[in-house]
Amino acid sequence: MALRLAAPGVKVIIGSRDPAKARAVVDSLRPKINQGVIEGYANQEAVQQAEFVVIAVPYEGHAAMVAGLKGQLRDKTVIDAVVPLNKGRPFVPPAGSALQEAQEILGGEAPVIGALHNISAVGLQDAASSLGDVLVCGDDAAAKKKVMELIKRIGARTFDAGPASHGYVIEGLTGVLIYLNRKYKSKHASVRVTGIGE
Questions:
Q1: Can you give the CATH number for the domain in which 134 is found?
Q2: 198 confidence band (pLDDT: 50, 70, 90)
Q3: pLDDT tens-digit profile of 133-158?
Q4: N or C: which end of the chain has fewer CB within 10 A?
């Protein structure tokens, strides 16, 4: 994701609990970008500078990550890309979805928008690779629109997929895509919406 956003000139800040780890990731990515700014900091410092905060961690660390950022996200837009998986199989968490879990933890401090769940990591790492469509859901229409505009900059089509309550369906599709990749020996399965705007 960082590589895709840096390509059109978006400033990217990678956060980690360990700032040295964030800087190491940045150092590994810099040779792969021709333009744009990419920096690495501790999570709290990264969030202070950000307009959009992307949560992209394994589900096991999701609640702790979001709780650790609470109190620092006012005037930010949170993009939750986390998928609840157990050995590659999707499940519905107690809140209904990872997106709704983040909403519950933050309690209205910042809008939380679900997006980027169904995009292949392999595709993201290759700037020449075409991306599937991105289904975007959430309860704040203005924040959803901003997220969709940001994602269009990485070369993906976006669709407003409704309220946050649709998050469990979109997150769950990732398990299906993982199965398809294994079944058909691929790494690029994604979602494509047809019949709209064609």
A1: 3.40.50.720
A2: low
A3: 999 999 999 999 999 999 999 889 99
A4: C
